[in-house]
Automatic annotation (TrEMBL):
InterPro entries: LOB (IPR004883). It comes from Nymphaea colorata (pocket water lily). Residues 6-93 form the LOB domain. Pfam families: LOB (PF03195). GO terms for biological process: hormone-mediated signaling pathway; positive regulation of DNA-templated transcription. Belongs to the LOB domain-containing protein family. This is LOB domain-containing protein. One of its GO terms (cellular component) is nucleus.
Amino acid sequence: MTGLGSSCGACKFLRRKCINGCIFAPYFSYDQGATHFAAIHKVFGASNVSKLLLHIPLYDRGDAAMSLSYEAQARLRDPVYGCVGHIFALQQQ
């Protein structure tokens, strides 16, 4: 839970009450988190992401959430190659 009476971006997107101990709250802020989580939810699904985050050590979860967000946005931009297409384009420069 991010603040008094406010939901995290993930709970805001999912239209549910953000509880104490919400797995998404530290990684998806109220203001920008909803847009980042929307891409993650569309590509991977909220349930799969919560299970994945629970299996990652606490100190690595922030990086994992950021990576999932980047990969989901890349997959929405390029459904065939996703982030691999972007990596390949950078290698060709």
